[in-house]
Amino acid sequence: MLPIKGGKAISEFFHSHNGYIRENFMLKEEVAALSLEIERMEETIDENKRLKKIIDLKEQLSYKVVGSKVIGRVPQTWNNLVIIDKGEKQGIKRKSLVTTEKGLIGTVIDVFPTTSKVMLVSDPSSKIGVVLEKTRQNGVLVGATTECKVIYLSIDSDIIYGEKVFTSGLGGIFPEGILVGTIKQVKKDPVGLFKYAIVELEQDLNTLEVVLCIE
């Protein structure tokens, strides 16, 4: 048998050791909770920055605009359609352009009482009149499987790589002057009658949260 003093010392050691383990576990829980709170605060700060940019853009535009949040995507057409939380009751109309603080993302195609469906510019059915900032070439922005492009550009045009693309307003359906993206590549169409340009969109269509609907 262990001496009484030795047994007591060992008992106190294990008791103290278990206490340290509990304290360590509690500290880890506290650190995890604080880390989560910091992440939430950072997300709130980022969201506030995005909302401020949206408000600034709303004040700059001369058109009637309605702010909205993206609340869903259509599973069958995940990369081409989104659903927003504003509809007929909030003044949303079909064919309204939809943008973020960075650039154009699509057009409203269906309106319900409190929600709407937005076709993204990446959808092959999307067609929007655009103009190139420097060369003033007019064309049509169309969606494709992996990228967007501007078609019907003059075969003789000297398009500048890196120039910005804006909505043209031609036809009177969509407003003009909304930023779309940047020219990153120019090619001739298969027939050789026109050029077309690959466009890098200003807004990543996979990270949509807050948007503006423009009449």
Nutshell version of this structure?
With 215 residues, this protein is of the alpha+beta class.
Report on the structure:
By secondary structure, the protein is of the alpha+beta class. The chain has three domains: 60 residues; 67 residues, Thrombin, subunit H (Beta Barrel), CATH 2.40.10; 75 residues, Rod shape-determining protein MreC, domain 2 (Thrombin, subunit H), CATH 2.40.10.350. It contains one helix and twelve strands; from the N terminus they run αββββββββββββ. The strands form two sheets. Strands 1-2-5-4-3-12 form a six-stranded antiparallel β-barrel. It has a six-stranded antiparallel barrel with strand order 6-7-8-11-10-9. A hairpin with a 5-residue loop joins β6 and β7.
Q: How many helices does DSSP assign?
A: 1
Distance between the termini: 90 Å
CATH topology of the largest domain: Thrombin, subunit H
Q: What count of structural domains? A: 3
Order of helices and strands: HEEEEEEEEEEEE
At CATH's second level, what is the architecture of the largest domain?
Beta Barrel
Strand arrangement, largest sheet? 1-2-5-4-3-12
The dominant shape is: elongated
Q: What do we call the CATH homologous superfamily of the largest domain?
A: Rod shape-determining protein MreC, domain 2
Number of strands: 12
> Uncertain regions: pLDDT < 50 for 5+ in a row?
none
The Rg value, from CA coordinates, equals: 28 Å
Helix content: 25-40%
List the helices and strands and how they pair.
Elements: H1 4-60, E1 65-73, E2 81-84, E3 97-99, E4 104-111, E5 116-120, E6 127-132, E7 138-143, E8 148-154, E9 164-167, E10 179-188, E11 194-201, E12 210-214
Antiparallel strand pairs: 1-2, 1-12, 2-5, 3-4, 3-12, 4-5, 6-7, 6-9, 7-8, 8-11, 9-10, 10-11
